[in-house]
Design brief:
The chain has a domain of 44 residues. The protein is mainly alpha-helical.
């Protein structure tokens, strides 16, 4: 088709020329439309926020505990507490020193 053989082919060839400013405008319009579509998609899609993990529930004691069971639990806790108190070291020397220092400062203030 180097040599158009008729008028119709010649007009078609002349019309098929590409205008550089039109091509620039087409590419810019395509870029703007693409950006607009991305923005619309982002605005219209629901935002899925990460929900915080549910804290583990503490195991609570039942509200209606029979008295015998409750009494046994309380007695067991008291026995354990008594053992801890008996086995705890008594810092008598440091306590006596602190008391002596406190009484000495009180006597010095009263004079």
């Amino acid at each position: 088709m180097l040599n158009p053989h008729c008028e119709h082919c010649r007009e078609e060839r002349e019309e098929s020329r590409v205008c550089p400013s039109c091509e620039t405008l087409k590419s810019q319009l395509e870029a703007v439309n693409h950006e607009k579509n991305r923005l619309l998609d982002r605005l219209l899609t629901p935002i899925v926020e990460a929900t915080p993990a549910q804290p583990e529930r503490e195991i609570t004691k039942p509200i209606n505990i029979p008295w015998n069971v409750r009494r046994q639990m309380l007695e067991r806790e008291d026995r354990e507490r008594a053992k801890l108190i008996q086995n705890a070291p008594i810092p008598t020397e440091t306590l006596e020193r602190e008391l002596d220092i406190a009484s000495a400062t009180r006597e010095a203030e009263n004079r």
